[in-house]
Amino acid sequence: MDFGRIFRKKSSRDIAKDRLKILLISDRVNCSPEMMEMIKTDIAKVISKYMKIDAQSMEIQITKTGIKGRGKTPSLYASIPIIDLNK
Amino acid sequence: MSEVIVVTSGKGGVGKTTTSANVGTGLAAMGKKVILIDTDIGLRNLDVVMGLENRIVYNLVDVIEGKCRVKQALIKDKRHPSLYLMPSAQTKDKSSVKPQQMVKMIEQLKEQFDYIILDCPAGIEQGFQNAIAGADRALVVTTPEVSAIRDADRIIGLLEAHEFKKIDLIINRLRYDMVKRGEMMTAADVVDILSIPLIGIVPDDENVVIATNQGEPLVGNSTMAGRAYQNICERVLGRDIPFIDFEKTISFWTRVTGIFHKN
């Protein structure tokens, strides 16, 4: 019988789960730069239909926020400077 | 309409070949016309797991290179008349086949078979690209371990990028005694992390090793793994089969030791 286990609080199952959650978020964020660029141009295209934006200085990124607890998916944030709201 | 299923995992040694052999055999036993294709060029294994290694004349690369007709490279299974195997080449390397050529060959095979099952090599390089090129459905095999799950996640990402219609998860080598002690992730944990539909749980069963030793797939027999594979086959066909509660079948001794391991 393993006495060490009695004093340990976290089971190895929980350790594995926690490690994987953190690990996969950084793995998933590492999507290819080409794909990020494609997403960016597509978003710019769609938004441009409705308002005038500064596509040059727009930025997108996938962040790790909201992963603690339940929300398991990382979020995509886009910062798009609007030049004119009425096209 | 025929379905092309790729069995993949990313990490090696998690049970892709065993899964391919058993799912293929199980579907054939249910009367489907099935072809198993070993796409692991240079490291062929499916023939051995199926017990058909002595019957190989031509292989996948011979077909691709036009050295023989597709029909000549097909090996008829010993047990089921509607099951065929196309072995891989042992002496070539993965660059001898291109995704386009695979797609072309699979299109030909679709005319004759209900299910085309591709046993994918480990990794995400050329061999993987070849295996997924012609497929429209995937079975992702993983074990409840950090490394295997990480690789499975990567594979799922790549499959999604290829616009697969259906991606299902098989959790292999689950040890219920360890799960009970809190020393292994549960099937629910793995599904939660990978967030794709679960199509089967295969318990860690020594009968798999025995079956491989004998070159006989164990799908459909009374062993735990045999029953689990049978259920996977039924679910591949779209039937709604409840998951077996293997916890009940855990031996008395594991239960006794399990009490001491609890904290």
Brief summary of the model shown:
The complex is a heterodimer of chains A (87) and B (263). With 87 residues, chain A is of the alpha+beta class. Helices cover 45% and strands 17% of the residues of chain A.
Question: What does this 3D model show about the protein?
Answer:
The complex is a heterodimer of chains A (87) and B (263). Chain A is an alpha+beta fold and 87 residues long. Chain A has a domain at 32-87. Chain A has helices spanning 3-7, 12-29, 33-48, and strands at 52-53, 59-63, 75-79, 82-84. Chain A is elongated. Chain B is of the alpha/beta class and 263 residues long. Chain B has a single domain, classed as 3-Layer(aba) Sandwich (Rossmann fold). Helices cover 42% and strands 16% of the residues of chain B. Chain B is built from twelve helices and eight strands. In chain B, strands 3-4-2-5-1-6-7-8 form an eight-stranded mixed beta sheet, with helices on both faces. In chain B, helix 1 packs across helix 11 (224-236) and helix 5 runs parallel beside helix 6 (126-133). The N and C termini of chain B lie far apart (53 Å). The chains are: A alpha+beta (87), B alpha/beta (263). Chains A and B meet through helix 2 of A and helix 7 and helix 9 of B.
Subunit organisation of the chains: heterodimer
Structural class of chain A: alpha+beta
Order of helices and strands of chain A: HHHEEEE
Report, as a whole number of angstroms, the end-to-end distance of chain A.
Answer: 73 Å
Which radius of gyration of chain B do the C-alpha atoms yield? 18 Å
Helix percentage of chain B: 40-55%
What is the overall shape of chain A?
Answer: elongated
Strand order of the largest sheet of chain B: 3-4-2-5-1-6-7-8
Q: Return residue spans of chain B where pLDDT drops below 50 for at least 5 consecutive residues.
A: none
What's the number of domains of chain B? Answer: 1
> Could you tell me the mean pLDDT of chain B?
93
Reported for the largest beta sheet of chain A, the result is: 2 strands, antiparallel
